[in-house]
User: What shape does this take?
Amino acid sequence: MKQKREESGLSLRAVSEELGRHHSVIGKMEQDRRKIELLEFVEYCRVIGADPHEGLDVMLSKIS
Assistant: This one.
């Protein structure tokens, strides 16, 4: 997630402001230190301009 955000040119704080969440929450999501709800993930992807399907494929491959 962090790599995609950085590729989009957005800072952690910019994404957190757009999502209305504290930057530490977004940081924990990116570091896999916090569970992410599906709708929260889709909104994060929307903000950074990423395809949520691609992210879900990555997550599914990690649990297979």
Observations:
- Residues 29 and 36 are 7 Å apart (CA to CA).
- The mean pLDDT is 94.
- The helical segments are 2-7, 12-19, 23-30, 38-48, 52-63.
